[in-house]
Design a protein that fits this description.
Organism: Streptomyces kanamyceticus
Number of domains: 1
Distance between the termini: 30 Å
Protein name: ArsR family transcriptional regulator
Shape: globular
CATH topology: Arc Repressor Mutant, subunit A
Number of helices: 6
GO biological process, one term: response to cadmium ion
Oligomer: single chain
Low-confidence stretches: none
GO molecular function, one term: lead ion binding
Structural class: mainly alpha
CATH superfamily: Winged helix-like DNA-binding domain superfamily/Winged helix DNA-binding domain
Helix content: 55-70%
Mean pLDDT: 87
CATH architecture: Orthogonal Bundle
InterPro entries: ArsR-like_HTH (IPR011991), HTH_ArsR_DNA-bd_dom (IPR001845), HTH_Metal-responsive_Reg (IPR052543), WH-like_DNA-bd_sf (IPR036388), WH_DNA-bd_sf (IPR036390)
Length: about 110
């Protein structure tokens, strides 16, 4: 018999999907998968302004995907749970294996991808 996931699981997965829907947030998560980082270093690595990075970090923090760890007068960011890093690796590998050579024409018009 087919079972349906609890609503709380659905909400958590949807929140994760919304976070991944933005390429900059994907890049941040993948960078933090490699190692924790301070915002200034992340901004430089990703080639974006600190203001833009700050907005995306706030979103990821609000989603519960990253945490800020005070280090002296600075804050270092890291994944909220290291399993997220493994999940990102698995998800990326699966999607690339299945969809690596596909494009989604009219993605915006269809509201997909």
């Amino acid at each position: 018999m087919l079972t349906v996931a609890p609503d709380t699981d659905i909400e958590v997965l949807a929140r994760f999907g919304r976070a991944l829907a933005d390429p900059i947030r994907c890049r941040i998560l993948l960078a933090l998968r490699e190692a924790p980082a301070h915002p200034a270093d992340l901004a430089e690595t990703l080639g974006i302004s600190r203001t833009r990075l700050s907005n995306h970090l706030a979103c990821l923090r609000d989603c519960g995907l990253v945490v800020g760890v005070p280090v002296g007068r600075r804050t270092r960011y890291e994944l909220a749970d290291q399993r997220l890093g493994r999940a990102l690796d698995d998800l990326r590998a699966a999607v690339v294996a299945v969809e690596g050579d596909r494009t989604c024409p009219d993605a915006e018009a269809k509201g997909c991808c």
